């Protein structure tokens, strides 16, 4: 199974930049999208079906044009779960899960901490998400949590760790949470195969950051420890330019 996670920063804008044509070429079995910023009625679902993805699930935020996640699949899931059942997490459309025969794939869009209020919300979200996943693993042990975590795990994952040490996304407490979350039973699929620096999944639109590769690696495909032996490949796809993020891919035997 080939799975891609991609924060498209507005699916309608991404489509105008060739997202559907790219999707056909990339040809994942499942793609998890974040920040779709649209409702299903605003999305050309027929064009996406024609591209080979008849199974489409959208979970927009209550607020129009904001946040939202989706899963597009070639394979029909056995079950789809919208949200977590936790109200403060769900009204922003940040979590969607598709259960297949021997694994479950989740699209996650973790909040950013753009100000003190949002940072407090982010930490509450992270704590409640950890509890939710701990309980979910008791019944669904084979989880693949794909998404924009809005956190760089280690210094190797950010172009300037010194100047960004007080910036949300690279705060010690955020990094410690992500480290603990991984240690609770997940493998960072990209780092499983690649230990090198200078691999990023998001770049600011300012000052030519992408052209100069001054980025952050904040998009992950985290795979349950129980699936580690089935990991085949994991790569970042920086040549896809429909967003300020780029896709990240994992293949499971």
General description of the model:
This protein has 253 residues and is an alpha+beta fold. It has helices spanning 11-16, 19-26, 45-50, 87-90, 116-139, 172-183, 189-193; strands at 2-7, 30-34, 55-59, 69-73, 79-82, 95-99, 104-109, 143-148, 186-188, 202-203, 215-216, 219-224, 231-236, 248-252. The chain has a 6-stranded mixed β-sheet with strand order 3-4-2-1-14-13. Strands 5-6-7-8-12-9 form a 6-stranded mixed β-sheet. Strands 10-11 form a two-stranded antiparallel sheet. Helix 5 links the parallel strand 7 and strand 8 (143-148). The radius of gyration is 17 Å and the shape is globular. It starts with a strand and ends with a strand. The model has no long low-confidence stretch (mean pLDDT 97).
Low-confidence stretches: none
Largest sheet: 6 strands, mixed
Helix count, per DSSP?
7
Count of beta strands: 14
Our measurement of the CA-to-CA distance between the termini, rounded to an integer number of angstroms, reads 6 Å
Structural class: alpha+beta
* Whole-angstrom Rg: 17 Å
């Amino acid at each position: 199974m080939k799975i891609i996670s991609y924060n498209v920063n507005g699916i309608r804008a991404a489509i105008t930049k060739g997202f559907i044509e790219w999707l056909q070429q990339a040809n994942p079995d499942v793609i998890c999208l974040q920040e779709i910023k649209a409702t299903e009625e605003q999305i050309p679902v027929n064009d996406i079906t024609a591209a080979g993805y008849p199974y489409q699930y959208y979970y927009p935020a209550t607020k129009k044009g904001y946040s939202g996640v989706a899963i597009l699949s070639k394979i029909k899931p056995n079950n789809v779960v919208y949200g977590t059942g936790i109200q403060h997490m769900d009204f922003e459309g940040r979590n969607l899960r598709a259960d297949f025969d021997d694994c479950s794939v989740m699209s996650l869009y973790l909040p950013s901490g753009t100000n003190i209020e949002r940072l407090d919300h982010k930490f509450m979200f992270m704590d409640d998400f950890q509890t939710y996943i701990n309980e979910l693993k008791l019944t669904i042990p084979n989880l693949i949590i794909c998404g924009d975590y809005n956190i760089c795990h280690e210094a190797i994952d950010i172009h300037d760790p010194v100047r960004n040490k007080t910036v949300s996304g690279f705060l010690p407490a955020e990094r410690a949470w992500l480290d603990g979350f991984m240690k609770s039973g997940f493998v960072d699929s990209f780092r499983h195969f690649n230990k090198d620096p200078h691999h990023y999944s998001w770049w600011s639109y300012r000052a030519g950051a992408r052209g100069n590769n001054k980025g952050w690696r904040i998009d992950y495909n985290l795979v349950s420890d129980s699936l580690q032996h089935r990991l085949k490949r994991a790569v970042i796809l920086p040549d896809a330019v429909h967003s300020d993020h780029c896709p990240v891919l994992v293949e499971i035997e």
